[in-house]
Amino acid sequence: MQLIDKNVIAKKRSGRLTLNNAMKWIFFLCTMVGLIVLVTLIVDTLMDAVGYLNMDFLTNFSSSRVESAGFYGAIIGSLWLMFVTVPVAIFLSVATALYLEEYAPKNKVTDFIKINISNLAGVPSVVFGLLGLAIFVRAMAMGNSVLAAGLTLALMILPVIVVSSQEAIRSVPSTVREASIGMGATKWQTVSRIILPAAIPGIITGIILAISRAIGETAPLVVIGVPTTLLVTPDGFLDSFQAMPMQIYAWIKMPQEEFQYLAAAGIIVLLAILILMNSVAIFIRNKFSRRY
Amino acid sequence: MSNYNIQEMIQKNKSNKGAVVEKSIPVILFLITSVSILATIGILYTLISQSLEFFSRESFMTFITSANWSPYGAEPEFGIWALVMGTMKVVAIATVFAVPVGLGAAIYLSEYATERVRKIIKPILEVLAGIPTVVYGFFAINFVTPVLQSIWPEISLYNAISAGLVVGIMIIPMIASLSEDAMSSVPNSMREGSLGMGATRLETTFKIVLPAAVSGIIASIVLAVSRAIGETMIVSIAAGSTPNASLDITSSLQTMTGFIVQITSGDAAYGSSLYFSLFAVGMTLFVMTFTMNIISQWITKRYREEY
Fold first, then answer.
1. Does residue A44 sit in the same domain as residue A59?
2. Range of A59's domain?
3. Which residues form a coiled coil (chain A) (predicted)?
């Protein structure tokens, strides 16, 4: 006696299996969209940039003439910008993460701070630009200086570093903490000598990713009014400056077609720097991440 | 030797300096932490005070009811709906494009891909998420728009569809990776139960995994829409600068963020209505993204299923 007719089952299943397979390929295509776009974007930009990407481009200041225009001022300006943004952002956000993870009591104030930080992460960058314009540029009279832009970007990446640092600190197991306390170390000794060193690789990875976001950020700089036609590099933090993404944006907006090629060359330089930074971040993550 | 007593030693070595440090560290850290609150207060104060200044000069009713945004000239009219419509058109196109693609990618990564494939593709998505938006803007105007024009010649140089598609590309990694997280956290026992009953992977995905992960997926989409609303450089470069409330996606428009960039990159005289209008637009933008973020957090909290 045959309870199950295999042929009937196979017939019924084959349609469903075909659908399953077809959809699998559609899902795979969806995944590939990202890769295809990435490759197209890089190849297209490279093709535009070839011929403009040379030593002159890296050593000349910006200019209204295509043949003598370069990226030097923008590269140096972005470096200056990071000299302000990075230390300020690291100082503020690592301290915040330490407080929230190690010291904060469980109460309404702490909850409020946490909600506040996650909301700050969702504020559009152009709104941070408006904050910088009204507070730093106007009210504090810093003008469109390195300091004003650097502080604005530092506030913008603060939530990013806080969240990644919190995760890094949280992943240090409590056994390590208890061992330190058990040996008679005080709270601060445990935090500064045991927990922070153990969490450092995770924290640094988060910092590098945040910096690479800050370096490519354009909108706040436009709002603050970062110039694009300077012929000097800044001498101090209160001087005005140029920045890479800002220069690229200015070139894209130029009506002459040649400037599009300059923009492409600038993009290649910017992307090269970003890829380098991301690789360092991934290297640190893989090399130093310890599993307890 | 015999005179020493461990407890005395501890007492002696416990210096006052140490105690002061222990007491002051939490206070110092708390003070630094409050900078993040100051930032929020700064944003709110800036937007509200400057917007109030704007509304003391221009009509608030016109602002929220009119769809005519013509800020220049002797008789300017500030009707935010022209800019909101511009933003909405771009965001709608981006969402329609990015949600199916992002979800498809999430389903593939979470339900079909082998561990090896996943390890290759996830970093690519991370790179895509890290590309500066000004680069996407360049891509939109120099690649996507010409390609679209070659198949659909009526499209003008600045248009909603090209900007929308590229904003969509920008938010795909976000939808894909957050939705994948939500789907991966559905326990395997549920999948195995379904597969064991003879369901195919596709049926398991649509009838078991997606319903179980739906709160995380919706939260990720809302968050991505909020990002798209606040996106600035792509729309300033590729969408144009002609505010209008039409539904036409082939012609030039202006978004809220695009307006802010246009005015600040020219010179709006400090103290003019035009200058203060920046903050009124910024306030509208802030309220919209803030609402979306709150909704996203609420969905995650309210509908999270614990397994």
1. no
2. 55-288
3. none
* Residues of chain B contacting residue A126, judged by C-beta atoms under 8 Å apart: 230, 232, 257, 260-261, 282, 285
Q: Which parts of chain A have pLDDT scores under 50?
A: none
Host H or E run for residue B54: helix B16-57
ipTM passes above 0.95: no
Measure CB to CB from residue B33 to each of A31, A100, A263 and give the nearest one. Answer: A100
How close, in Å, is residue A235 to chain B by CA atoms? Answer: 24
Q: Which domains does chain B have, with CATH numbers?
A: 77-303 (1.10.3720.10)
Q: Which residues of A fall within a CB distance of 8 Å from B300? A: none
Residue B287 pLDDT greater than 90, yes or no: yes
Question: Per-residue confidence at B224, pLDDT binned at 50, 70, 90?
Answer: very high
Is the predicted pLDDT of residue B30 greater than 90, yes or no?
Answer: yes
**A33, A62: one domain:** no
pLDDT of residue B14: 65
CA of A249 vs chain B CAs: smallest distance (Å): 7
Query: Chain A partners of B39 at a C-beta cutoff of 8 Å?
Result: 120, 131, 155, 158
Confidence check: pLDDT of B303 > 70? yes
